[in-house]
Amino acid sequence: MTFPDTNNGETGASRSPDLRKSADLGGLAIAAGLFLFAGLIAWDGSTYPIRRSYAQFGPEIVPYIVAAGLAVFGVATIVMALRKSFPEREPLNWQAVGWVVSAVVAEIALIYAGAGFIIASGALFGLAARGLGRTPLWLTFLVGVCVTTLLYVLFRHGLGLSLPNGPLEQAVNSLFRR
Prior knowledge:
Layout: H1 19-22, H2 25-45, H3 62-83, H4 94-113, H5 117-131, H6 137-158, H7 167-175
Helix pairs in contact: 2-3, 4-5, 5-6
């Protein structure tokens, strides 16, 4: 992988040693967050019980794979930050941030209120899509409910996972009873 030369022809000896001038501090902060999450996931994975049968490893290896991937991205982010090869940042769109935050709050509130996985995740999808610029809002909700209904059927009836039940989930479950 090659990175664009952002040193303006300066050699290593002529560059300023000041980290603030020679590195993208935002990129370094992102890298620190990636390493923090990698460590947290690896630590959490170390608490899983080991369930091995004939295989040399079981599902408990997945957190370590995810943590290793995050660490690799952390290293790549440090390299990009030190080379200042991140693109120019756009100004923060607070309206979009508000929509996405309201999507997460709505998901939590609706699940807590007993609306169920489908309605709550449909609201999450709809509000987040609105935050990313999709309109009209009613259509994003409808698409979200359709997608999450499919996901509910796959997770609940395909994988046997337990998801928060609400009235819509009970109606879907009644279609699959024998």
